# Entry
Amino acid sequence: MTGSRPRVAATAMIAALALTGCGETDDTPVLTWYINPDDGGQAALAEQCTDEADGEYIIQTSLLPNDAPAQREQLARRLAAGDSSLDIMSVDLPFIPEFAEPGFLAPVPDDVAENTTEDTLDGPLEAATWGDELVAIPFTANPQLLWYRESVAEEAGLDMDEPVTWDDIIDAARETDTYLGIQGVREESMTVWVNALIASQGETILADEQAEADQLQPQLGSEAGQRAAEIISTIGSEGLAGPGVASLDEEQGMRLFQGDNGSFMVNWPFVWPATNAAVEGGDLDEEVLDDIGWAQYPRVEADTESAPPLGGVALAVGAESEHPDLAYQAVECIVQPENQADYFLTDGLPPSSDSAYADDRFEDEFPMAEDIREAIDNAAPRPQTPFYNEVSEGIQSRFTPISGIDPETTGEQTDTFIQQVLRGERLL
Amino acid sequence: MTATAEKNPASRRARQEARLGWYLAGPAFLVMLAVTAYPIAQALFDSLFSHRLTAPDEREFIGLGNYTTILTDPVFGRAMAVTLFITVVTVAVELVLGFALALVMHKALKRLRGLLRTSILVPYGIITVVSAFAWYYMFDINSGFINSWFSWVPGITEDLDWFSNFWTAVTVIMLSEIWKTTPFIALLLLAGLAQVPDDLLEASRVDGATWWQQMYKVIIPNMKAAIMVAVLFRALDAFRIFDNVFIMTGGEAGTEVLALLTYHQTISRLEIGLGSALSVIMFLCVVLMCWAAIKLFNVDLARGTDASSGKGEK
# Structure
């Protein structure tokens, strides 16, 4: 029995080699693509582009940890140590400046920049830029939408064809005695929320994003910051997000929304395939699915368009990579609009390229694709600074638990705290 | 024969033995140097710099600056207090429970002994991360069953979010810690119980000592060494608590302990300097605890018995 194992492995290897194309030899450069966990879409793209390269290079994937902060930690450690295996990396948008500033990323060749960003939507393009230069190639773009239960909106008398404000949905939750699906947990999602609330008033969290560590000026104590804190605090102190608010993340928020007390929810598009799957698997009633509607992210002021949160990944090439040219060639292959469309359908992460949305397969799978595209166009990236982690963790620590927020002082305290941390005067 | 000649064979033998000792222990000693002394020295060195992994060019020597920042920060004081609180409470509870378990195991019928020891040891055999997740999901407001099973207990309702409040969160963390490591203490104490001479016990019984008197006058004094070793090992372990807090709260609700604080600075913030300084401080605390145990309480780790009884045997 034991003897058959190596043989099986060997056969599998030969089969794999035979599958991956014709022109490959032992000298074919192997590019490693560090991917964030998904449903297998990136691995499929790696295989597809390896085939298309016809022996010029082979892309193999290597899996990063589950959550974005842990992905950042691993990539940062490897980059700082000069790991030459970082040929291609899927980088979460807010961490790009931190990697770009110390020169950890290989410069993007002009022709690649031109070919890959011809029709990139504004939000993701801005997020992949640092100091007026494109430093990574936009791939997916993930905006939040406002999801609602049509029955609750009707009961509260809200016309969802018109833009709604946070005040509207707070009132609706109060009136109908239902819960709002927000993210109250002390995680990245808290910064995502705070940033969207401030950006929706046309302001930014940082006065000057390019500033050095000791010059960085957070302005959460500003008028816009206070208004943002007020919205979060109202939901927290009145218990409008249910008793489990302190552990409410995107996943739990979705379950709350699907439950009997669900009303409105701000969340990423993954909730749509996830809810569909739950209905197919028999865990959820068909009625719930039929009751779900979607709209643009709620506004803060009735007459200012909202700036929804933006997630997603861009592809970067490590500065120490032995084959940066080939890596960029591979990236060009990966981010083709058709591939972005395929990836949306298989893995639920929307394209950053405008033309990818022309795909008519979207209609069945993602009837909200057009709303997603609009949201991406209006979306505001999170603060773009090499010290994003400190800014974000500072916000997370002071804005949770959300029932403890004092709209007048919390913002200012957060500003001071972040500045002290950045000057090395405080621990985080 | 002169006096010197008589002395020589003995001292030569002693020297040879010493050399043999070095030959035998030398390789292990070198490996220890490589895997412990070097990283410790590196951490000491790094702790004197303001060094952020993603800003390699801005590395700057700041002397004891990191230590001043840490020691003057209330965040550190709080983490230290929480860590000490968890250490004291868990070790105290474990000692009492462990002693009871050890007595049960000691008194159990021969036939049951093996089964009993194995079943008591099961929690200790579970990987800490796994047990932390198990406890987390048990108490979690969204997936846990504790709230509905124990809703008859005053203070526990369907809406209780255990991990959003310091006292409830730290209770769950400590319960999980106690559940998992009591077997370890019980096992060490069982070894101590076996050391108590039966004739002493019999003599005390003949003299009419009650159960409590036997316990206080004979059993406990005779296993002092085992108790001290158990307390020291568990205290050092409890002081470095990480997994349970990391999984259950991630330091939220004021439950951040020293090891987690160090982790956040070094791994999440990539502030190598600050993180190294924190780990040096933690290291010094552990050394202090060892020193106090060995010097003040006469714990002899090598012999597993205290100095006075060692003398007595001679």
